[in-house]
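Q: What does the assembled structure look like for these inputs?
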Amino acid sequence: MSAALLAGGVDARADELHDILDCGPATLRALALRIEASAGDMELIYRETEIDEVWRWVDVGLGQAQHVRAAPAVIAHWRQLKAEVMRIHDLIGIDLDRDTAVQALRALATQLESAA
Amino acid sequence: MLSKEDNDILTQTGQGTPMGDLVRRFWVPALLASEVAEADGAPKRFRLLGEDLIAFRNTDGKVGILEEACPHRRSSLALGVNAENGVRCLYHGWKFGIDGECLDTPAEPPGASMVGRVRAKSYPVREVAGVIWTYMGPAEHEPVFPDFEWMHYPEGHCVPFKVLEDCNYAQAVEGTIDSAHAGVLHRESPWGHPAKYEHEKDLSPKLEVEYTKYGLRYGAVRNLVDEGKLHARVTEVVMPFFTLIPPDGAGVRKNRRMANAFVPRDDESTWHIQWFFDDTTPIDVEYRIKEGGHYVDENFRKLRNIDNWYLQDRQMMKTTNMSGIEGILMQDHAVSETQGRILDRTKEHLGGSDVAVVAWRRQMIRAARNFAKDGTTPSVLGADVPWSKIRAATVRFPDSSNWKAEVPLHPEAAAT
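A:
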């Protein structure tokens, strides 16, 4: 357990499913850490499920932006986020390409932090 | 969520598709033995994996499965005469044995007989546990038969049922590897009323999955707050479409288990074959029919179905159960069928409670992709699967333990 608690107190245990409570940068970075720590097929299934849940939050965000008729740039931002999360989902689910997925998650987190 | 490409791989089972070719490497349940109970009785028409077939029991009591269309002029052999160890086409009298061999072509001129030359397309058959099974793949790749323990139970202790499900097989499978729905869809009290059963009290069980040689198993762990214990239902998922459901409840349900086979009829409908089995008590068939709401017509179509909206009763929802639909089976079919004939998985919003569904899909899609790529078959098709040891279970245990320790995986069943 202690070895799995990495810098910043992020819980990076790979052998269980973690709750995903938002699609913010901290969540994406924690997910990237867990992908790095994931070894077997089962752990990657947990990661794929967590990405599914990130995607759910993103799609909810897009839906809300559309509902309130947000500015086109805001809606475009959510759409781009959604497409990128889907790409990351398939990097894990189909390609088993952990490195590219981790890089993409961190790039996305940085992008979100910059936009904040 | 799945990409459209992955959803297509998962759901398309016709000949020449990745999943269709993979599924044809398995022995699959085709129909109930009771549908062709009579030697020299009427041939039975049915569709399986998108192919139109007939089954018939010959004079010697052996069952054959042939392509429905006569090789001569493509008329249905189901119209034919079943006698003297073969089915004779009604159109010109061509006759075929259970292995598809042509035995007679009476309308052909002398010298032009097709006997021993032409063949009707046929598939090998086994009759096991009240069901006719068939293998629709290449003869040289016929796999070991899945010899589950319950197939050897005494008469009356293992009973098969069959019903048509009006949707793709994959969403039907997924409906049985989703323990989180049990406390909602099958709730035996109206929403907002006190829960009746343990699985209705903790609506968000913790799901953990373990891949195995034969597929996967998962534990749905619930917290029994009143007792200070944990409760787990361990479901076995055997590739390509079998799910083994643990016992629950009391009375006749205490030790009664269930196995499901969701066999693609075609891409938009599924033969849902169930075996109920109990090694301690004979299966109460009448009880099961009532409990499941398993009322079907002669073609196994549900009397309560999507066309009559499952006879959902709004008053019942206020007084009796969550769904207003009578029967556990009907409730499951209602939610699966109303997802659409083929569920569009690009539009889902999955969460942690769906992890077993994610794991199963991914296992199936990877297996189909690998098979299409280089012919690699999943380990379940190997010779060393400990079929008799695959058993679903319900356990209670202290929180110092875990479900994998309480229901250990047989060493020979570990994923390779």
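Chain A has four helices and two strands.
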